[in-house]
Amino acid sequence: MDFITYEQEGFVGVITINRPKALNALNSGVLDELNSCLDAIDLETTRALILTGAGEKSFVAGADIAEMSTLTKAEGEAFGKKGNDVFRKLETFPIPVIAAVNGFALGGGCEIAMSCDIRICSDNALFGQPEVGLGITPGFGGTQRLARLIGAGKAKEMIYACANVKADEAKALGLVNAVYTQEELLPAAKKLAGKIAKNAPIAVRACKKAINDGLDAPMDEAIVIEEKLFGSCFETEDQREGMGAFLEKRKVEGFKNR
Ligand code: CAA
Question: 38, 99, 139, 140: which could join 111 in a potential S-S bond, CB 3.0 to 4.6 Å?
Fold first, then answer.
């Protein structure tokens, strides 16, 4: 791959968007490679993912403006669909994905971070949707996910006024869970991913699905989504081990994802 690197450390996979000369901007090649990278992940052995950007300046500085500059209406729509399809794959990926936002997260960069389950960032991070300054709307889910994450009023201010927010404000808005120094960021992401990976994988995946699917449903249906996923955990080896360990007052002997 030219633009994506993937490393596996135990149960945790680290995906790095690696196009630092263009501040990791998302062109079609990056989107295609990210799609292939996700397809190739072994879900038997991988329990959590981290998504980050190469270099110390930028997570992702947006969709590639040079590539977009000459698109027709139909091509623009198709490019939006291409990004949306990959980001939705990430959002609904069976295992949790942590965005380790190490700098600029603008346009498509903010949008890809919002497609992850959890966001943490470095203190030099900058979040924003500067698209209207380029004559377009956000195109990879920004109008939808930002409003859902931080509320419509603040999302509209950020989007209409191209009002970027720095790391601390992003934390105050709930856009990120925590802010670290540049050096601390990846170790913190790995520590969190490691904590997730220690827990029963079938249960963690069911929680992700329950939260994601339930958020889109009315409460009466949402609660049934949870009931079904709750039920699906029973009779698994890991449920028996988890509860058995509690009852026998001993530590879990490592969940098996079975
Ligand atoms: N697309 C293509 N190339 C980009 C890029 C982008 N989104 N962002 C940065 N680059 C390139 C620059 O063109 C430059 O390339 P050259 O060295 O070949 O000239 C290189 O990355 C370094 O960038 P700068 O020299 O501009 O670096 P800087 O430190 O002065 O500024 C920045 C950094 C503020 C992030 C600035 O690069 C910038 O404003 N980038 C664009 C941010 C943006 O508008 N993103 C939204 C894109 S639209 C979108 O994402 C639509 C959507 O929702 C799908």
Answer: 140
For residues 41 and 152, give the distance between their C-alpha atoms in angstroms, rounded to a whole number. 35
C-alpha 196/C-alpha 12 separation (Å) is: 9
CA dist., res. 70 & res. 72, Å (int): 7
User: Which pairs with CB-CB distance under 8 Å and at least 24 residues apart come from 229-235?
Assistant: 230/206, 232/202, 232/206, 233/200, 233/202, 233/203, 233/206
Q: What is the distance in A from the centroid of ligand 1 to the CA of 144?
A: 23
Phi, then psi, of 172 in degrees rounded to 5: -60, -30
Q: How many Å apart are CA 63 and CA 106, to the nearest integer?
A: 9
Q: Which CATH architecture has domain 200-247?
A: Orthogonal Bundle (1.10)
What is the DSSP pairing of strand 118-122 with strand 178-180?
parallel
- 40-52, pLDDT tens digit by residue? 999 999 999 999 9
* Contact (Cβ atoms closer than 8 angstroms) between residue 23 and residue 102: no
Nearest atom of ligand 1 to the alpha carbon of 108: 50
Question: What would the pLDDT profile of 217-241 be if each residue is shown by its tens digit?
Answer: 999 999 999 999 999 999 999 999 9
- Which of 75, 111, 226, 248 is flagged as catalytic? 111
Out of 58, 65, 69, give the residue to mutate to test ligand 1, the one with the largest number of ligand atoms within 8 Å of its CB.
Answer: 65
Q: 221 alpha carbon to ligand 1 midpoint, in Å?
A: 43
Give yes or no for residue 25 CB within 6 A of ligand 1.
yes
> What is the whole-number distance in angstroms between the Cα of residue 59 and the centre of ligand 1?
11
Residue 241 bears catalytic tag: no
The ranges assigned to domains in the chain are 4-197, 200-247
Note the CATH architecture for domain 4-197: Alpha-Beta Complex (3.90)
